[in-house]
Amino acid sequence: MPGKAVCLLSGGLDSATTLAVARRDGFQCYALSFDYGQRHRLELEAANRVAEHLGAAGHVTLSIDLRRIGGSALTADIDVPKHRSAEAMSAGIPITYVPARNTVFLSYALAWAEVLDASDIFIGVNAVDYSGYPDCRQEYIEAFERMANLATRAGVEGSMRLKIHAPLIELSKGGIVQLGQSLGVDFALTHSCYDPSPTGGPCGACDSCQLRRKGFADAGIADPLRYP
User: Fold this and answer.
1) Residue 105: which of 129, 122, 128 has the closest Cα?
2) 113 phi and psi, to 5 degrees?
3) CATH dotted code for 4-219
4) Does an H or E element contain 148, and which?
5) Contacts of 207 (CB under 8 A, 6+ apart)
6) What radius of gyration do the chain's Cα atoms show?
7) Which of 191, 193, 225 is nearest to 208 (CA)?
8) Dihedral angle of Cα 26, 54, 15, 184, to the nearest 10 degrees
């Protein structure tokens, strides 16, 4: 019988769909978001909307100032790449990669899971559309899970085994959109853009916007967001 689960929730379509999957599978979902100094901080408003919409049992937003170390176009004064081709997006690690971000986020999720006595953590990583982020791969998820069961009281005492779920990891973006729609996700509540306008609208040209637009097009579903 599923129990409690901690679900990482950025406010984007992937994390929203992942939260919906956890809910479908019968988990009592506790959403965890991060204000980490990201330039697209508007995603936190989307995370609040999505958590409420999908009936999260709890929602916590933690503050971590990753701008203090920078190293990414999302946390430093570095231009966000625009209008890149699919080939360019799939080549190498992009400047929008935030160093060790998923490791940091999963570590906090692991801590909360211990407090909640939850054996399950959900994360919306995806490795199909482009493979630029090293912490979005299946082998990384498996390695973190092994570490989690070595580094926690529950794992050492054997009271429960911690499981990291990455239900979208082998899906295309179009497949994610179709799955989310089938689970009742309201994509109008989500935010994906790395470099939104002052009014909060998506730029339409960053990697995240392009992948989102392609996903909706491939799924044959209209994106409710408006682009320039």
Assistant:
1) 122
2) -60, -40
3) 3.40.50.620
4) helix 138-151
5) 81, 84, 89, 94, 96, 130, 194
6) 17
7) 193
8) 90
User: How crowded is residue 127: how many other Cβ atoms within 10 Å of its Cβ?
Assistant: 19
Order of strands, sheet of 4-8, starting from the edge strand that comes earlier in the sequence: 58-63, 28-35, 4-8, 120-122, 163-165
- pLDDT tens-place string over residues 50-71: 999 999 999 999 999 999 999 9
Q: What is the pLDDT of residues 29-55, one digit of tens each?
A: 999 999 999 999 999 999 999 999 999
Q: Indicate yes or no: pTM above 0.90.
A: yes
Taking CA 140 as the corner, what is the angle to CA 3 and CA 48, rounded to the nearest 5 degrees? 50
- Taking only the tens place, the pLDDT of each residue in 2-19 is 899 999 999 999 999 999
The CA distance from 32 to 7, in Å, is 6
